[in-house]
Amino acid sequence: MKVVNARTGAAFTASCALTPRERDILLAGGVLAHTRRGRA
């Protein structure tokens, strides 16, 4: 994923290795939202 600083225009490439559970938590909007959806 390319990350760009909107103010300076500086850019760099970033990546993040996630487990399937971590990905689900991020997509749900956090641990609390993930738990509320019954996916603990």
Would you give an account of this structure?
- The protein has helices at 20-28, 31-36; strands at 2-4, 11-13.
- A hairpin with a 6-residue loop joins β1 and β2 (11-13).
- The longest helix is centred in the middle third of the chain and has 9 residues, at 20-28.
- It has a two-stranded antiparallel ribbon.
- With 40 residues, the chain is an alpha+beta fold.
- The mean pLDDT is 92.
- It is built from two helices and two strands.
- The two termini are 28 Å apart.
In short:
With about 40 residues, the chain is an alpha+beta fold. The protein is about 40% helix and about 15% strand.
Quickly list its features.
2 helices, 40 residues, two-stranded antiparallel ribbon, single chain, elongated, alpha+beta
> Rg, please?
14 Å
Q: Mean pLDDT, rounded to whole units? A: 92
**Major sheet summary line:** 2 strands, antiparallel
Largest sheet, spatial ordering of strands: 1-2
How far apart are the first and last residues' alpha carbons, in Å? 28 Å
Gross morphology: elongated
The amount of helix comes to 25-40%
What is the number of helices? 2
Number of strands: 2
Order of helices and strands: EEHH
Structural class: alpha+beta
| Beta-strand percent range | 15-25%
Unreliable spans are none
